[in-house]
C-alpha cells in the first residue's frame, strides 16, 4: 500500500525519484475505495489445487478482492468434479460483459502441441483480446505467457529437449520496477516447462521489460511498461509437494523425467523431503502485482478501462 504524507513534505520528492509511491493527504482525502475484481481463467487439469494456490497468494493484502473463477466452455474436466465446476465457475460468455481490475490466465497441459492445433485456441485468443479491453492488468502464467507472446507479438516459443524442471535461482534486472520491489537480488522460483523464448526476443518488443531471469531459465518475469500485461514463465504459486507430485506422475506414466533440481533435501534423491525456498518471493510478487499493477492504476469506474487501451 502507498504511504500517506503531508503535501509538499521534502521526503516525497526523494521517494518519487526512487519510484516509491507516496500519496499526499489531499489525494488520500479524495480517494474512493472499492473491492478489486479479479478473474482467474483456470486451464490446469487439477483445478481445485490451482485455484487454492492462487487464492492463497491473492489473499495477502488488506484489500478486499472479489474473485471470479472462469472456464471457457462446458468441457468436462477429467480431474475436477463437474459439480465443483457447476457450483463455482462462470462460463466466459456469461461474464464477457464485465470488466476486471486483474485477470490471471494459468498454464495448460498442452506444452508440446502447436498453438493452432489446440482445440480451444480460438477461445483462448478471444479471451486475450477481450482482456486488453476489459482488464486493467493481466497475469499470464507459464504456457499462457508463451501463448500470449505468440498471439500479440508473433513470437513462437522454442522447445527444449529436456524439461526445465526444479527450483532455480534468478536475478533481478530492474530493481526499481514496482513488480519486484522488495525482492532480494537473487531469489528462487519453481519451473516445469519445455517451452522457452530467448531473452533477446522479449527485449526486441518495444514496451516490454525483462524484470528477472537467469542463464538457466532465461526470462522469468516480463512486464509491459504500461503494466497491462505480465508474462511469468515459472510457478511461484506451487505448494511444497507440487513438483514432487508432477515427478511421480511422469514416472508412473513411463516418461524419462529427471529429478527436479534444487528441490529435495538430498540432491537427486526423490525419497528425501522437498525444501520450500520460494514462498516469500511468490507472495511478494502477487502482492506487488495487486498493489502496483492493479490497485494503484485501475480506474475507480471499471467502465473506464476500455478507454485506456
UniProtKB/TrEMBL annotation:
Its main location: cytoplasm. One of its GO terms (biological process) is L-methionine biosynthetic process from homoserine via O-succinyl-L-homoserine and cystathionine. Substrate binds at residues 163, 192, 249. One of its GO terms (molecular function) is homoserine O-succinyltransferase activity. Pfam families: HTS. InterPro entries: Class_I_gatase-like (IPR029062), HST_MetA (IPR005697), MetA_family (IPR033752). GO terms for cellular component: cytoplasm. Signal peptide: none annotated. It catalyses: L-homoserine + succinyl-CoA = O-succinyl-L-homoserine + CoA. Coiled coil: none annotated. The record marks 111 as: Important for acyl-CoA specificity. The record marks 192 as: Important for substrate specificity. Its EC number is 2.3.1.46. Keywords: Acyltransferase, Amino-acid biosynthesis, Cytoplasm, Methionine biosynthesis, Transferase. It is found in: Cytoplasm. CDD domains: GATase1_HTS. The active site is at 142 (acyl-thioester intermediate), 235 (proton acceptor), 237. Pathway: Amino-acid biosynthesis; L-methionine biosynthesis via de novo pathway; O-succinyl-L-homoserine from L-homoserine: step 1/1. Belongs to the MetA family. PANTHER family: HOMOSERINE O-SUCCINYLTRANSFERASE. NCBIfam families: metA. Transfers a succinyl group from succinyl-CoA to L-homoserine, forming succinyl-L-homoserine. HAMAP family: MetA_acyltransf. This is Homoserine O-succinyltransferase.
